[in-house]
Description:
This protein is an alpha+beta fold. The protein has 10 helices and 4 strands, in the order E-E-E-H-E-H-H-H-H-H-H-H-H-H.
Amino acid sequence: xxxxxTALRMQQGRRNRVRVILDGEVVFSLPRILAAELSVGxxxxxxxVARLQERDAQEEAxxxxxxxxxxxxxxxxxxxxxxxxQRTPDMIQETALSRLREAGLMDDAGFARFWVENRxxxxxxSAAALRAELRRKGVAxxxxxxxxAGLDEQGAAERAARQGARRLRGADRExxxxxxxxxxxxxxxxxxxxxxxxxxxxxxxxGPDAESEDVPWKHRL
Length: 221
């Protein structure tokens, strides 16, 4: 739809977009950053209009990616899945992903580090559980391994146990061991660590004189 630009007007309700009016009729709108390249009186060919609309779609996809990443870092697979749900055309999607990558906003190695640090701070899990989570998010094995290097499994289990133990105040020893042991198992910790940490938490909550029995918690389920 070729024509001459007769006006450029801010779009009502969307002040970041500009209506492009060709020969007195509203034809399409563009983000302000693209509309800034145009001027009243300029003639546009059909190919130029199509190219502007394609760039508009690319910019919109990029901005959607930025908004998603503003909530938390994402893996490349998560971003691809997001664009697919939005039915973003493949070429538009690849352009947006390339821009995000070049801006340093899409980095699976950095995402893996963030994920491990965040989990350990707020919802501690074992290395095995974290590895499975990251692999489901499409992170390459080498990035997963690097992010998990130096993870203190014992410390993570203790932090997780303290979170779970808060809900068990007043529980007797039998219930405490059973429920806290199951809680830690769901976080991916192995039996040896679970056993020692459960006993440690029971002692901390009940005092050093609390009765101790050398019976594995899993035998009490």
